[in-house]
Amino acid sequence: MEVRYELEKKGIKVTKQRVAILKVLLESTVPLTINQIQDLVDLPMDLSTLYRTLDTFYEKSLILKTVPLEPSQTVYEFNHLVHKHHLICTNCGKILVIQGCPLHEYEDEVESSTGFIIDRHQLELYGLCASCQKQLNVTKKEKHTHV
Fold this sequence. Notes:
Blueprint: H1 3-9, H2 16-27, E1 32-33, H3 34-40, H4 47-59, E2 63-66, E3 75-78, E4 85-89, E5 95-98, H5 104-114, E6 124-127, H6 130-136
C-alpha cells in the first residue's frame, strides 16, 4: 500500500514525518502506543508533533484509536476498513482482536426502537488474558471478583 497515496486520498498534506508515522502504522500487525510509534519512526520527532499528526489521521479516519484503560495507554492502528473489536487485558495491557461482530442485529433493534441512525460502534471487552490468569492463578469462577 502506497503511504503517500493514502495521505493524498484523505486530503492530508504529505510530509516526511507523516509518511514515516503512517508507514509504521501500516506495517504493524498490532495496535501501537505513542511511545512505540515514536521508537519505530525512523526520523527524530517530538511527542507534540506525533500527537498532532495522530489527531489529524484520526480526524480523517485514516487510523483507529482505542483507549484501553487510561489515556496514557491509548493505542493506534491503521484503519484497514475491517470491522473488528478488541479484548484488552487489565493486568498486562495486551490487546487481542476479535473477528466478527455480534452487534449488527442489536444495532438494528436499537435503530428501530429509538429512531437513531447508528453509523459505527466500537466494542472493547476487558479482563485477564490466559497468561495473566495463569500467572495470577485466577479461574473463570473467580472472574467477577477482579472488577
